[in-house]
Design a protein that fits this description.
Helices cover 36% and strands 18% of the residues. It has 199 residues and is α/β, with parallel strands linked by helices. The longest helix is centred in the C-terminal third of the chain and has 19 residues. The mean pLDDT is 93.
Length: 199
């Protein structure tokens, strides 16, 4: 497929992103740049100075809600992107109402319990939808440990699945960027295998 065919094929799909921090913001930008036009974004947090070392935000956006700041950044790339924003902390019962009409989901939470909640909700209520999880991206180096694995028919994981965030293993732009772009790359690969949808 050439560039125009790729953009045409994926333009009609709707992508859900649960969490708009390091993984979610960078994956959203990568997907927008390759032609995804429809997003559902969910996050309750605000942009903080400590986020700028790895998240796709800028110093002038400090204090803004992440879903609003990410919307603004995506619209700077392409003005015809359609964005559905949910400024809230997600719970188990929210997943279907928020993401039910998405064609593919990216999990981009910080906390393990939130990752587990989303995975369980997806497998319980939307088992036919693809979920791409990010897990294990803290620290530096160990590039060869970062992998893409298929956990089940519709659940994939990107990361090293080991490295947990800590004071001595902070999340930093290089590894977070690798994993978020790996999620976006896998999403693009899977979308291109799906039957195209009209915008």
């Amino acid at each position: 497929m050439n560039w125009d065919q790729i953009k045409q094929h994926i333009a009609g799909f709707k992508i859900g992103i649960a969490g708009c921090g390091g993984l979610g913001s960078n994956a959203a930008v990568a997907l927008a740049r390759v032609g995804v036009k429809r997003f559902v974004l969910a996050d309750f947090d605000v942009v903080e100075p400590s986020n700028l070392n790895r998240q796709y935000y800028f110093s002038k956006q400090i204090g803004q809600k992440k879903v609003h700041a990410l919307r603004d950044n995506l619209l700077q790339i392409y003005q015809d992107i359609s964005l559905e924003l949910h400024d809230k902390m997600l719970h188990f019962e929210d997943i279907v109402p928020v993401f039910g009409d998405c064609d593919l989901m990216l999990e981009a939470f910080d906390k393990a319990e939130a990752k587990q909640m989303l995975t369980e909700a997806m497998m319980c209520f939307m088992p036919d939808k693809v979920l791409i999880i990010g897990n294990g991206m803290a620290g530096v180096g160990s590039f060869d440990a970062i992998k893409q694995l298929r956990w089940s028919e519709n659940v994939y994981v990107c990361g090293d699945q080991i490295t947990e965030i800590s004071a001595d293993q902070p999340p930093l732009a290089p590894r977070v960027g690798i994993v978020s772009n790996m999620q976006a790359n896998l999403a693009l690969e899977l979308l291109l295998k799906m039957k195209p949808k009209k915008e």
